[in-house]
Design goal:
This protein has 215 residues and is of the alpha/beta class. It has 6 helices and 9 strands.
């Protein structure tokens, strides 16, 4: 794990997670609902090949709302994070939880699905390749991995320490990395994955490349 990612984890484990959860309560309900519907459809499509009851792990689950989407699809879902405040929020959301670092910790057994939304934003190039390789090794054959990265074209730098305004402001800067699509395609192939689907999404501060990979 890179020093950049380690410092970011420390930020979320202290003040960051609680501030993020507070920001969630201030978001426009209509806009949040529309975004959730789009994400729910994409999640459903991404994991449609998995059987009911398949084990799925969300990495960086935050409040657990995305894990609830996965759970509604009939999967055996575990929500993971490194910040105590996030794990507590997931428990209050009725979810099974584990403290888990994608770059270091041992994966649960018999995983068919992995979901990491807005997690790779804090990963260096080396972190991303490590995460993809570890994910590939952890998944059962036919397993799916859905994640996203920030499009570099929306920024003038490849990486920076920043605290975005609005919904993403947590009162402390943390490491962000930005990627070209081809970089992720190359790393996914190097890890052994094949790309099932990828698409581009427009956001507020950022545009995103989204991927569904299969082992």
């Amino acid at each position: 794990m890179s020093l950049e990612n380690q410092k970011t984890l420390e930020t979320y484990s202290t003040i960051g997670a609680q501030k993020y959860l507070e920001n969630n309560t201030k978001r426009d309900p209509k806009h949040a609902s529309e975004k959730r519907k789009i994400l729910a459809k994409n999640i459903g499509d991404a994991f449609s090949s998995l059987p009911t009851g398949a084990k799925v792990l969300e990495v960086g689950a935050a409040d657990g709302d995305n894990s609830k989407i996965l759970e509604s699809l009939g999967f055996d879902v575990t929500a993971s994070d490194i910040a105590p405040a996030f794990l507590e929020a997931c428990k209050k959301n009725g979810l099974k939880t584990i403290k888990f670092n994608l770059l270091e910790d041992e994966f649960p057994a018999d995983l068919s699905g992995l979901f990491a939304w807005r997690v790779f934003v804090h990963f260096t190039h080396e972190d991303v390749l490590l995460a993809l390789s570890r994910a590939y090794n952890a998944l059962l054959p036919g397993g799916r991995f859905m994640f996203n990265v920030i499009d570099r074209a929306t920024h003038n730098v490849t990486e920076e320490i920043v605290d975005f305004s609005g919904d993403y402001n947590i009162g402390a800067g943390r490491y962000y990395a930005y990627y070209d699509r081809d970089e992720i395609v190359e790393m996914a192939a190097k890890a052994g994955f094949r790309i099932i689907k990828d698409w581009h999404e427009h956001g507020g501060h950022n545009d995103w490349f989204c991927f569904v990979l299969e082992k």
